[in-house]
Specification:
By secondary structure, the protein is an alpha/beta fold. It has 10 helices and 14 strands. The strands form 2 sheets. An 8-stranded mixed sheet has the order 5-4-3-2-1-12-13-14. β2, α2 and β3 form a beta-alpha-beta unit. α1 packs parallel to α10. The longest helix is centred in the middle third of the chain and has 14 residues. The radius of gyration is 18 Å and the shape is globular.
Length: about 270
């Protein structure tokens, strides 16, 4: 069946190493959009970190959507209004903030509009997250946090070796109760058990009346695996980690070689 929806990861996939959309990728996405294909950015980023790219690709229109926070939120591209929201509770925040302290790992938590850390020695990766997405960063001690808050995701962040040494020490009970996966070598993302990009793409496809055979997804990291497995056409980037390539039907070129454009041209145009 013809592809009617393309869900594209952002960092390492849509964006080249300079965090830009190349002219060829932009042209291919525009051509697919003009054919009536729904283009959906599916990312671990919050909505604020997606907006400039939605605008650049002319996707901030009524009836267009994006998937943010690794699938915790499905939002209208025009205004960020949620059409699906599966967030963590304040109790979940308290559990993982304490666990991160016990593991000796930096921790951050995202609401829909703010990035919070209780670490006085704020991680360079938290600063990086704020800078690259544009989400405002706030230091708040745990006792200063509002218990009414909900969080699309929380994260453990540290240099890759330190993070990799801590991950096996996360209790099995936590692994069973939550979705826990890496989105980069230095980010471990934690969401509600029902949340992943695949579930987000599935919910949106159903909303649009499409079958999985009409869906193409593209990604490069562990948090993209579920949506590659769901799609009729799952595409791994040439720069993807091996576990992503293993579940893909096709491996395209890297994000520095217009890999997204190459896949769209092959399967859609």
């Amino acid at each position: 069946m013809a592809v009617k929806l393309i869900a594209i990861d952002m960092d390492g996939t849509l964006l080249n190493p300079q965090h830009e959309i190349s002219p060829r990728v932009k042209q291919a996405i525009g051509a697919a959009r003009d054919k009536g294909v729904a283009i959906v950015l599916a990312t671990g980023r919050p909505f604020i970190g997606v907006q400039r790219y939605l605008m650049e690709l002319d996707l901030q229109q009524e009836g267009q959507f994006c998937i943010t926070n690794n699938g915790a939120l499905v939002q209208q591209a025009a205004n960020g209004e949620c059409v699906a929201d599966i967030s963590l509770t304040f109790d979940d925040y308290l559990y993982f903030e304490k666990l991160a302290r016990d593991l000796g790992i930096h921790f951050q938590a995202l609401t829909k509009s703010l990035l919070f850390t209780a670490n006085k020695d704020i991680s360079e990766y938290t600063v990086h997250e704020s800078a690259i997405t544009g989400i405002p960063l706030r230091y708040r001690a745990v006792e200063e946090m509002d218990p009414a808050m909900t969080f699309p995701k929380v994260m453990m962040i540290d240099p890759p070796q330190k993070l990799d040494e801590a991950i096996p020490r996360i209790p099995q009970a936590a692994r069973e109760r939550y979705t826990i996966m890496k989105s980069s070598p230095y980010y471990l993302e934690i969401m509600d058990k029902r949340v992943n990009k695949g579930a987000g793409v599935k919910a949106l496809a159903e909303k649009l009346g499409l079958t999985r055979d009409q869906v193409m997804t593209l990604g490069d990291q562990e948090n993209d695996i579920a949506m590659l497995e769901f799609a009729g056409t799952g595409v791994a980037m040439g720069n993807a980690i091996d576990s992503v390539k293993a579940v893909a039907q096709f491996v395209t070129k890297t994000n520095s070689e217009d890999g997204v454009a190459h896949a769209i041209e092959k399967f859609v145009l």
